[in-house]
Amino acid sequence: MKTLFYLIFAIIINGCTKNENEPEIIGKWKQIEIYGSDGGASPTWHPVSNGYYLEFLKNGNFTSTKFSECNSGTFNYLNTNEVNMTYNCSNFSNNYIEIIESNTHTILILKPSYMECDEGCSVKFEKING
């Protein structure tokens, strides 16, 4: 009986702990800047006035206002610096892998792995909830 108790306790503890190899992106984020160039040699961060929103939920779902054709799907981590976002709408190119360039408690920077970006194309988000 004691062994069964310890086994159940270990399963509960392991199920509640975060995988240390996974970045913490859970929460709601608003796009605030984009990194790029207008054709010059020096890309920089540019403010975005009407940025889109991303919300990553603990259950592996996400919502987004990036595309008008589709605004929800599922996500999973491919490794410590990539997130695979799969939109769940039919007739929509639905699988996007984003490289996590930076991640703090308040700022998230994503770079699309599906685009060639000679002059930069990263997107900076600010967390809008805890």
Description:
The protein has 130 residues and is mostly beta strands. The chain has a single domain, classed as Beta Barrel (Lipocalin), CATH 2.40.128. 12% of the residues lie in helices and 43% in strands. The chain contains one helix and nine strands; from the N terminus they run H-E-E-E-E-E-E-E-E-E. An eight-stranded antiparallel barrel has the order 1-3-4-5-6-7-8-9. Strand 3 and strand 4 form a beta hairpin. The longest helix has 15 residues. The termini are far apart. The N terminus is likely disordered.
Please write out the topology.
Layout: H1 2-16, E1 27-36, E2 44-47, E3 53-56, E4 61-64, E5 72-79, E6 82-87, E7 95-103, E8 107-112, E9 123-127
Antiparallel strand pairs: 1-2, 1-3, 1-9, 3-4, 4-5, 5-6, 6-7, 7-8, 8-9
Could you give a quick summary of the protein structure above?
It is built from 1 helix and 9 strands. It has 130 residues and is mainly β. The radius of gyration is 18 Å and the shape is globular.
Q: Do you know the CATH architecture?
A: Beta Barrel
Briefly note the structural class of the backbone: mainly beta
Could you spell the SSE succession in H and E letters? HEEEEEEEEE
Give the low-confidence spans.
2-18
Q: Strand fraction band? A: 35-45%
Cα distance spanning the termini: 40 Å
Number of strands: 9
Spatial ordering of strands, largest sheet: 1-3-4-5-6-7-8-9
Which CATH first-tier class would you pick?
Mainly Beta
**Nearest-integer average pLDDT:** 82
Rg, alpha carbons: 18 Å
Say what the CATH topology is.
Lipocalin
Q: How much helix, percentage-wise, in residues?
A: 10-25%
Largest sheet: 8 strands, antiparallel, barrel
Shape: globular
Q: Write down the domain tally.
A: 1
Helix segment tally = 1
